[in-house]
Amino acid sequence: MKIGFKKALTIFKYLTILFTIVYWIGIIIDDCVFIEKYWSERWVEFIRGWFVWFSIYFFAFSIYYWITATIIVLIYFKLIHRTKTNVGYIK
């Protein structure tokens, strides 16, 4: 199972990088009108708000990812891998 969780961690790292890039590009595109109008007056509020929403979305993404990854790893190593070794497959 250790191998499965190492692979899940590697995938999580890459998805985290992708999630971060897509979020920050998307939020700038989404709030472009507000940036043009109010950036000089309220730039601290924009950055703080974006970071709060990023934290919330990242926390939710992490929870969903690790719940799914744990279920998949446990199913594979407790059911599928066990039946393959019991049938006589060579590792």
Structure overview:
- The chain is mainly α.
- It has one domain.
- The protein is built from 2 helices and no strands.
- α1 packs antiparallel against α2 (32-87).
- The protein is rod-shaped and about 65 Å long.
- The relative contact order is 0.13.
- The model has no long low-confidence stretch (mean pLDDT 87).
Concise structural overview:
This protein is an all-alpha fold. Helix content is 93%, strand content 0%. It is built from two helices and no strands.
Main features:
single chain, 91 residues, mainly alpha, 2 helices, 93% helix, rod-shaped
Distance from first to last alpha carbon: 15 Å
Helix coverage percent: over 70%
- Rg result: 21 Å
Number of distinct beta strands: 0
Helical segment tally? Answer: 2
Coarse morphology: rod-shaped
Largest sheet: none
The assigned structural class equals: mainly alpha
Tally of domains: 1
Average pLDDT, rounded to a whole number, is: 87
SSE topology:
Layout: H1 2-30, H2 32-87
Helix pairs in contact: 1-2
